[in-house]
Write a structure and sequence with these properties.
Blueprint (H helix, E strand, L loop, with lengths): L1 E5 L16 E6 L13 E4 L5 H11 L4 E4 L10
Parallel strand pairs: 1-2, 1-4, 2-3
Length: 79
């Protein structure tokens, strides 16, 4: 299963979202932090408020089965 975690190094940091074989990608705009999502195998560092860049990154990374997102109110288009 492919999972996208938006906000995985901030408010959602420290979550354990993987089972054996899961593919978890964390999208973060502030860089990597200690205690980030456990089991993460890849990361995207970009500002999700820049909608065009976000769209390109998601197109490049393919489809996800599900996502967990903590998005600030200054980025309503990111959802």
């Amino acid at each position: 299963m492919r999972t996208l975690v938006v906000g995985g190094t901030g408010m959602l940091g420290g979550l354990a979202l993987t089972n054996d074989g899961d593919d978890v990608t964390v999208l973060a705009h502030r860089g990597w932090r200690e205690g980030s999502v456990q089991g993460c195998v890849s990361s995207l560092f970009l500002d999700y408020r820049q909608t065009g860049i976000l769209e390109l990154a998601l197109e490049h990374n393919g489809l996800f089965d599900w996502s967990v997102a903590w998005i600030h109110s200054d980025a309503p288009e990111a959802l």
